Amino acid sequence: MTSEPTGPDPALEEQISQWRGYVRHHRGISESDVDELEDHLRGTVADLSSAGLRPDEAFLIGVKRLGALDALSREFAREHSGRLWKQLVLGGDQGPAGADRAGNGWLTMLVFAVLAAAAIKVPALFGVHMDSVAGATFYLRNASLLALAPMVAFLGWRRRIGVPVIAVLVACYGAAAVAINSYPFATDTAHTLILAALHLPLVLWFTGGLAYTGADWRTHARWMDFLRFTGEWFIYYVLIALGGGLLTGVTVATFNAIGVNVETFVPQWLLPCGATAAVVVAAWLVEAKQGVIENMAPVLTRVFTPLFAVLLVAFVTAVLVTGHGIQVQRDILILFNVVLVVVLGLVLYSISARDPLARPGFFDWLQLVLIVSALAMDVLVLLAVYGRTADSYGFTPNRVAALGENVVLLGNLAWSAVLLGTFLLRRSPFSRLERWQTTYVPVYLLWTAAVVALFPPLFDYR
């Protein structure tokens, strides 16, 4: 008996989407290769489903029949070895999903990088110079807008994002620009202004995720790809910054050797233009080498996860043994928050880079230790920050921002620990932990947006 055709199974489509996102990040496998593998997988699932298996059973068997992804990667790399260097050096002719505009690659990147470098200097045409007081205030408010908008436009261009997504992005960036520039801050060093300037890049970055996910902005798999992109972009940007620092030093030294003073050119042109152009270049590098060589971020994550786990366990043990609490100086609290954010970044990237179908292993247990010890540190930081509110200053903008950020981190870490623990006990799939990370992204966006948009009026622009 032939069953009536039905529509796509949402659960199956989500599983295939997650599998596709994982495969796309393996070396030597291009977008067309992933399409071919997906066709094989869908064919196998259809055959098994018609034989009476449930879609989830058919999917698992279908993936198993495709074989080990590493072996597939090696096979593709052997068959397409010439393509590896093209993709590595020039960005290739095939990028990630939706990134297939004709003539893209390094030339497109170069255009947007030049636009980014020019954008940061446009205010100088209107008399706003970086070395002036007015310029310092302007760039404090607008530097992130000028630096990130070209990168978001670059990602949107590559993915052919539709008019509705473009409209949302323009509205978000426009609203952010209006808010940060129109608020009547009490002084140019007001706490709410500094907080808004620090949180605005995060708001813009999360909003820029719409350009990265494109038409698939509703799928968790694409947002998980965005988290991977974020981790790799950060590493590339740091490497470019280190190289740029070396280039700057050599530039100054060589021109000084011939009696030419470039000490004005470097801070006024080389550093700002290079830093903003590098935002686009780092994004292009992540895209260009995607699926060609083993990504660097997972390797670094494997190295630093055990080191940070040891550090946090030693810290919590020292607090318990000595009975000493965290000192309440602002700089120290900021330091602990930075450590927690780094730990969260390690956890996020480890989750995003892990094979969701692999069995629990030693590294998963190590991650649970890291998360639990980070939770303990977060609680200690929360107690210390809350303790500061008992003095005569009460709830200042900085303290409320610190409390809120630690509560937001606590929520993510706590539920991540629960989901990872149940996964290690074989009581829930790893995909639940993945989905939790992407589900939590709006929480970060809402909190950082609140600090930018609501804190200034709430605290009387002080």
Automatic annotation (TrEMBL):
Keywords on record: Membrane, Transmembrane, Transmembrane helix
Q: What is the lineage of its organism?
A: Bacteria, Bacillati, Actinomycetota, Actinomycetes, Micromonosporales
Please verify whether the record's keywords include Transmembrane.
Answer: yes
Bilayer-crossing regions: 106-126, 138-157, 164-186, 192-213, 234-257, 269-286, 307-326, 332-353, 365-387, 407-426, 438-459
Q: Does the keyword Kinase apply?
A: no
Query: What protein am I looking at?
Result: DUF4153 domain-containing protein
